[in-house]
Amino acid sequence: MTDSSIYDKEEASSILHVAMREPASWLTEVPNIMRCIYENMECIGMASARHSLDLLLLLMTDQCPREVVTSLLKLSPSCDRY
């Protein structure tokens, strides 16, 4: 979702929609997904892409709250941990 071409943005959006329809297929990948979102959030400027990420985060938090929180704690800068 960081690529500037329209095709790539549409493709990334469709992948997100598929992932949200079939959460059982990727729920074991929550830490990897959280890391990817964290590392790319600043590059995602399209409102529709940010909205899709919001929906994905809500779904992951609903399905796997422990994994989401653990991932966020591991990703947080060390100065925010104390």
UniProtKB/TrEMBL annotation:
Short name of one Pfam family: HEAT_Maestro
Ranges of residues in domain Maestro-like HEAT-repeats: 1-81
Superkingdom in the source lineage: Eukaryota
Protein name per the record: Maestro-like HEAT-repeats domain-containing protein
Species for this entry: Mycteria americana
